[in-house]
Please model this.
Amino acid sequence: MKVMKSKVTDKSAEGQKVKKFRSKVPGVMITQYVEEIPEGKSHPDFTRKPIALTIQEGKFGVFKAIVYGEPTPKVTWNRANGKIDDPEKFQSKYDEATGEHTLEIPKVSAEDADTYKCFATNEYGKAVCTIQLNVIEVGFKKTKELAKSKEEKEALKPGSFRTMLKKRSETWPYVHEQKPLESEEKVWEILMSADKKDYEQICAEYGITNFRGMLTKLAEMKKEREVEQAQFIEHISSLKHIGVNADENATFEIDMDLKDASSRIFLYKDGVMIPYTVEMEEEMKHQLKRVGKKFIFTIKNLDPEDAGLYSVDVEGVNVFSTDFKIPPVNFAVKIEEVKAEERQDAIFQCVLTAPMAEINWMGKSAPIENNDKFEITVSEDKLIHKLLVKDCQPLDAGIYAAVAGIHSCNAWLVVEVDKNPANKGKKIARKTTQAGGGDLDLEKIAKEQAEKHKKDMEERMAEAKIKAAERGVTDAAAQAEKEATDAATKAAREAARAAEAKAKAKAEKKAAKLKDAKEKAKAKKKASGGGAAGGGAAGAGAAGAEGAGASGAGAAGAGAAGVGAAGGGAAGVGAAGGGAAGRGAAGGGAAGGGAAGDGAEGDSGSEYEDIVVSTDESDEEDGATKTKRVRSGKVVPDTFIGKINSNGTATDAKVQKRKAKSGDGAGGAGPASGGASANNGEAASGDEASSADEANEPTEAAKRGKRTGRTRPGPILQETVIDPGVHFNLGLSDVTAILGDPAELVCKLSKENVDGVWYLNGEEIEPDDVLTMSKDGFFQSLKISKISEDYAGKYKFEADGRKTEAMIVVEDPPRFDAEELKKFTVPIVTKKGQKATFKIPFVGRDPMKIQWYHEGEELSDDTNIKIEHGEGYSQLTLNKLQRKDTGEIKFKLKNEFGTVEAFAKIIVTDKPTPPMGPLEIIEASQNAIEVKWRSPKDDGGCKILNYILERQQIGRNTWKKLGPIGPEAHYKDSDVDHGRRYCYKIRADTEMGTSELMETEDVQAGTKAYAGPPSAPKVVSAFKDCITLTWNPPSNTGGTNILGYNMEKRKKGSNLWSPVNPADDKIKEKEFGVKDVIEGMEYEFRVAAINNSGAGEFGTPSEFVFARDPKIRPRFTDQKVKSFMVVQAGNSARFNMNFEASPWPDVTWMKDGMPVSKRVTISNAEGASQLLIPSSERSDTGIYTIMVKNIVGQETFSIEIRVTDEPKPPGPVEVDENVPGTVTISWSPSPDEKRDDRLHYLVSKRDSSKRTWHTVADHIFNNKFTACNIMPGREYQFRVYAKNDMGSSQPSESPKWEITGKRERFVLDRPESKTCNLERPPKFLVPLKMHTAPQGYECYMSCAVRGDPTPHVTWYRNNISLNTNTNYLISNTCGVCSMLILRVGPKDTGEYKIIAENQLGRAECSTKLTVSD
Model:
């Protein structure tokens, strides 16, 4: 798809005072030409602006617009790149009936993709809007390919290489791939609506480095936006960014209060307006739902193209923007349904196709986070995600979902309630087993997904490398071809020049011979140096004119034309001295080895020097030497200016410098044919190492007419190295030490093991028992083991003439002994009226300020306060203590070096204060009075042992003692008369005594006290014909028990409350199902509590709820249903199945996978289905399956029904002895054996010693049985029965059987011993401990776990598995589980958890690791 960006800029007319502003129509800019518009007139504006188009190539495209204004505006169209004056391609029309202006493009092509503008203009202003036309290209374009091929051929021509190189030089820094820069507008839109905690992440993503500048600009933009929003919005809050929910739809929410409810709301994606539908209208991809002040936008049927920046505008003002990013991830293994028992843990788990740090878990449409109820864990490779629901309760049942990217999966959690009558009313114990998890090997699947993901990434990288290599090969081929073309061009040009120079040299030679004599004489007189012919004709330099203040310029001699043609001739240049007569200098350029003459230098009168620059550009027609005048300075002799060859030598230009001196000097000369220079000139060739013979031959550069460079063979100045000696890399630092503590001075030298001297106050220090001097490599140190006042002063260390100094200051601040301080801080407990003494020793330099404080108030000597100070201690004595003296004692010392404090506590005990009211009446019924009161304000520093109560009946003078009732401030008086009033006296009793009494107000037994309002009812379930609610009882019961509740309902929009239950039929429980509802209506409910006094006030109403069925996946509600049924032939077979589903499901019955026959009657009712076979036959035997299906899902259940009858007895029974001690019984089969595959036989035996029948074999499916342990001398008889699911047949008896008696050896069979079962679930015997480890140290964690079979142990840090992390050494030896972290770092801080699992259960233990600096 080809997308063009706008390059059109709109400029206002010159001389007009205009003002620009945005229209109420989004995307329209208005320019007003006048300050005030006359009444009845208006500037242009759009009623409907054209919208952007994305259209397939070859289709019909049209832009439509409706404008208004007075006078009527004129509408014109324009585009950014190109014109629209072709009537065959662009047609502008106006429909008077509808007022529409259209721009039609009959057949859209790829070249039409552009930014278009629509202008509406009148004399008062102009309105303009911009629209985009995007064209989707289709098929192969022959013309485009031909043009591309032509461009490639043109690029291969030699002449185009220079253009190509220029283009490459302009673009080369940007050849490598870069991330396309996001538009600045998008970044600011994201920041305007983002949370502050996300600023740093957004700036890093979009390359914003000036964070402070960004915050300043963002604050200004927010102020401007708030002003714009204030025009249409009263208040805006609760901005919820876009997110994907469980039904794979994306939503984002805004709470805003519009000033005008009819304000238009627009939705944009990446700046392009997109249509949406409101609730209750036709279904579209984008939908807006409005609930009060909340606006909820929904995007359905998500796909990767939905990613982008979504913005919401109100009347053209941006309100909210949110960036929707879609990661490329899906589910390899989805979560599955889990059935858990009550108080058992349940686990959901899934595997992703690509690593993801976290996914969103939802339970019953609400987001789930890590807490005491839920635990979310992620594997180390970030592919396996698990959700653990702890301690499952019936309320936890429902649908749970996992959301990753735009994909989601959900499954049911079914919690089976314990229906054991024995456990009714008891708290069920927490189970250690875990439900869910499945049989899949998630680690294996995750490993396969990781390898697949890695392989995909490697393939992408390989493709990128191949493309980069192909580009490199193409660039290298183009470069090689260009270099070959350049070399050929240069060789041809040099050959042409050499031929031309040779022809001209011959002509010049003939002319020079004719005028040789005359010219020589003339040259000797006028010039001080002449050019000599050497191998070819030389051109003579011209002499500079003599005179003060004039500069002489050399003129080209005869042969100048030849020299110029060859590119080697040079113009002579003269330099004039400042007023001194000096000879002009002649610089001679030689062609074919001509010698240069010498030149004289004039007096220095100018700061400029003559620099001769010889150029040889390959694209120049001639090679004339140019002379530049540059400023004199300290430059390196023989500086080169020009190009550099591949071997590093200069080829294009050479600079010769001459310094101005007084008198004659040597002139710089070109290369002479004989290798010598005239006068004092210095000969230099292109190669300093050439021999004398080589000097006789002209160099290759000289043959081509080029000047060779000069280089100096060696350094200009001799380098010298001076040893700087010893110096200090780190000097001494001042030290402040406390008297008696050690101190140390250290410095660092530039050399190792240097001898030095230490000084104190100018005197050299000698080591002793206290002072120790040492050196370790570069470091020199002085240690003082125990410092005193004598060691204070200025210290100096001197080595090799260098020194460093520092001061040691000795301080003696106040200090406490640790043991004495520990004794001082022990609280002192004493009784009222006694005394307490505090004493603490200390050390420190005098003078010292000593202060004692009690509860922050400084103490001084008084009647009951005595303070004593001695040498090295202080003592405080408090006499005649009172209860109010309880508090904190502080001791403070201060001298010139510091301050120190010590704290103690004193507790003075006394009898408690009276208990406190007011009296709280819990119950005041005809049978009992129950009251509560508050504990004493001050318990006297002792624990309350009892409360002592007395009671008086109003009207009597006597008080009845109720005795000590214990330490609880609560009493229930059951010995009361209905209607009587009572008063109570209450005292508190402690070991210090009994408090004063508290007398209560009168309390009447049996007064009417209505219960308070219950809590607002909560909806448990809602169906079309029943709404079930639950509520909590009132906190205030009115002093009696709650007898029941009344409930009322009200329709939405109505003011009338109607009763739900009759007045004489109160609701007993705290849950009720309201069935008197109308489907589709919305209701609210409220509840009042009833006690002995009657019904109280109604509580807060519930939330509104619809009477309609929820979407429930079909589920069978029968907990214990048989899967096998036996029916006697001829009887009816009946099977009932209860289920729940919403909406109403389709119920289908099948027999052995086929529809049931017409003989079978199916009856379906609400929540149940029945299968009935009126008169069953054997052919009705089979597996019957019920399938319940609705739009949410389906559920199936199968039952095997077997139709049979009582079997007929088997045939005659025969007995035979094949092996001594055994008898083989055989019989003829029952006639029913062929018709009943479950028919079997039972054999019973009777011998002559017992004369009773007992069973020796059952479930025999053949017609033969061998009986063992047949004793000789006894008579045996056998019976055979035929049995099936209906029962047994009549027996068939065998004839009597007897074996002659034989005495056998008695053998004792000892029973086998049974092994002891030691299996048990995991349990931690020694838990993990809290750890705090310094950074860089090792940390060792261990615990002990028991279980059989041996449990599998997994370590986690912050819910991420560590078992495969090589940074942690994990071991499990004989139940002792340990983990070692070799070097602890900040990243190791967090919660560590260990989970032990086996087939019998699961246990876990956790701890925290804190890393300190």
In short: Residues 442-514 form the longest helix (73 residues).
